[in-house]
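Worked example

This section walks through a single chain of length 194. The input is the sequence exactly as stored; nothing has been trimmed or padded.
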Amino acid sequence: MTPPTSTANSPETQQAVADLPCQTCDSGQVLSAKGLCCRDFRSTLGNFATGITVITALSPEGEPIGVTISSFNSVSLDPPLILWSLSLNSPNIEAFSSASHYAVNVLAADQQHISDGFASRKSDRFAGLSFSRGLSDVPLLDGCCAWFECTNEAHYPGGDHLIFVGHVERFAQGEAESPLIFHNACYRKLNVTE
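Given that input, the structure is written out below as tokens.
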């Protein structure tokens, strides 16, 4: 394990570090006055394995929309609440913010192509996909491990993301047993042993 480097805690040193450009990322800035590089931070976060979901909803015009998300998590059992986050730069931020309902589609191990499709910038992400309709006509993708149909309960600012809290109205488990996993910038599959 490589220990973190430390810097002096004086305000002058912190400000000097904050003004330094980040040499390894696109933003050109360090994350904070502590000298954290955003590329390094993202890479370190990648050590935490996550499941992959596609959040689906309807646009204000009634068209299906969806986006790949790995930030899905449970919040509460009573009431049943979940959360996920979306970049403020997402072209769908307003549509998801104003949607009355959305669905969390937990992708199965054989659905990497769906994750890739909803992570892309292509306009019709639903082309060629089978799905049914859930609460408020929200798309439910076929073949998933699980589905959570939610009302759009609350939003909270979270830095460069908006945090969504959903109240689960209905949920179901699919027949797929193995979820799609993301770890260290790669898709992974669980190795199931008896």
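What to look for: Helices lie at 11-18, 38-45, 93-98, 112-119.
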